[in-house]
Amino acid sequence: xxxxxxxxxxxxxxxxxxxxxxxxxxxxxxxxxxxxxxxxxxxxxxxxxxxxxxxxxxxxxxxxxxxxxxxxxxxxxxxxxxxxxxxxxxxxxxxxxxxxxxxxxxxxxxxxxxxxxxxxxxxxxxxxxxxxxxxxxxxxxxxxxxxxxxxxxxxxxxxxxxxxxxxxxxxxxxxxxxxxxxxxxxxxxxxxxxxxxxxxxxxxxxxxxxxxxxxxxxxxxxxxxxxxxxxxxxxxxxxxxxxxxxxxxxxxxxxxxxxxxxxxxxxxxxxxxxxxxxxxxxxxxxxxxxxxxxxxxxxxxxxxxxxxxxxxxxxxxxxxxxxxxxxxxxxxxxxxxxxxxxxx
Amino acid sequence: xxxxxxxxxxxxxxxxxxxxxxxxxxxxxxxxxxxxxxxxxxxxxxxxxxxxxxxxxxxxxxxxxxxxxxxxxxxxxxxxxxxxxxxxxxxxxxxxxxxxxxxxxxxxxxxxxxxxxxxxxxxxxxxxxxxxxxxxxxxxxxxxxxxxxxxxxxxxxxxxxxxxxxxxxxxxxxxxxxxxxxxxxxxxxxxxxxxxxxxxxxxxxxxxxxxxxxxxxxxxxxxxxxxxxxxxxxxxxxxxxxxxxxxxxxxxxxxxxxxxxxxxxxxxxxxxxxxxxxxxxxxxxxxxxxxxxxxxxxxxxxxxxxxxxxxxxxxxxxxxxxxxxxxxxxxxxxxxxxxxxxxx
Lengths: 344, 344
What we know:
The structure is a homodimer of 344-residue chains.
Chain A: E1 4-8, H1 14-27, E2 33-37, E3 43-46, H2 53-57, E4 66-70, E5 73-77, E6 82-85, E7 90-92, H3 103-110, E8 115-116, H4 120-127, H5 129-138, E9 146-150, E10 162-166, E11 176-178, H6 181-192, E12 197-202, E13 208-217, E14 220-227, H7 237-244, H8 257-271, E15 280-287, E16 290-297, H9 311-319, H10 333-343
Parallel strand pairs in A: 1-2, 1-7, 7-8
Antiparallel strand pairs in A: 2-3, 3-4, 4-5, 5-6, 9-12, 10-11, 10-12, 13-14, 13-15, 15-16
Helix pairs in contact in A: 4-5
Main location (chains A, B): cytoplasm
Domain ATP-grasp (chains A, B): 133-326
GO molecular function, one term (chains A, B): D-alanine-D-alanine ligase activity
């Protein structure tokens, strides 16, 4: 099957999305439709041979044809009108704002354009880390202790270390580990540069971390390998690049069946009746034999391809099980009854 | 100030939104821009003199000019291009799907078109009654006991009466009060006609109910009168019509200052850091001196105008305090650093 890759977005993760799209281009040989959303909220149709980072950083994309979404697809202007661009199912690969915050999901659903990616409800509940904690709690999934703070909050932290995160950001931007009171203010300032809402969370050094991806298709959940991510380069600049450009398969982490089942069970609690239509990655901690949700990546870097034994088949499977938009028609029964009632 | 009224939508509340828009036309004398979203997701510009229910039920609107949203406004086609329609701040008056589920909020925010109404996060958390309960619980606001069921759920109800509600519907459609086991199946079937997710909630006969509306402007919350709604016509067809077409002011309910403060305190817990930009109405129960949230109306019928002493001033106030969209620009700093790193 063929897919279209939608990437870019008006967000702090704009550039990471370009890296991610270039990675998927390498993996999906017959994909040749690339749709770039720039930081001015304009869509451009990008030729496959131009899918290189310098094409975007040099702003060369501005010379490419502008396209725009409307009912049932993307269109471009012609001399006296417009014509539709034929595009196969879209993969929403816009990380962070626009892509993960529900804007693009809403737009595509409104115009009835099929896509692989989280729907707007799933986006809202996973984009904001406070809402993710609320969701986890509601669905019986553990999270580490945390507090939510704003710039004018009276902030009191008793137990260090903590990890400070902007509430609404998908990557590692603005995140710091804080070991003592003295470091707190600087780290908070850094986080508040990205969001007016910040999460302060318990940080347990050397906690075991496991990543698991999955998706729903043909009436069941399909899981990826479980990976134990390398942590020594945590928060490092190159690490982020490597994460979003990964195309080589990983190996299953060395864990017991019991731990694997615990991870799958928690993934299922988060995913079911919310993330259908999307390939997501959940990052978990295991501590004292208990599983904690760290975060949900509703559009993981390069779609977590490296966690699946056969990634193209994964995409084919999910693309046949996408949620259908509602088909409500106005009957005007109510207004007609009112008219009759008023006529009495 | 002048406003534009956006109404209609692809939803079960399509017709109620028309009733609501006609009510606001009467109240806002100098409003002359009406934008109708039909059940095919097309926008039409409706003349003020055509704002009558029969104009829509007879499908006469189809002859009016089609318009469409893009960056910074609504546009219409001309012979060789397009022209922008000058529209003042929009009031999102699409009840139910599209309006209250986050679709329209996302669309308007994406295209940077100013509007009064809940933002997408607020929509998602108030449109689905399960998520509303989850939010209330997270923010320390009580709700009555409930369970969430799906069509294939094993459903067990021990204590009657209960009230059955489709999870994602803004008006009284599909709702029934169930007194015993025998009535349960029929009522559930009725609710499942509207949504695959249904809420079964405790029903306390003759419980005290109070409605309170409010909005945030000029750095503080502004509250409406508190109303004790008449309940004898509950779920009745005419009641719904009367509710959405109300334009006459109500009187403050006969309550103590203590109860009033309890309602305002709970309203504030729900509204703050979520509903900014919107005039919402919260419906509360008071039972054994405890306040329970019944539901949030993020776009109440005719915008709950009848609860405000001076409704036009309310709209003027809120329109000067609308949330601003982010203004993130791509710097390509990251991609340039990668290029340098790779060149090493």
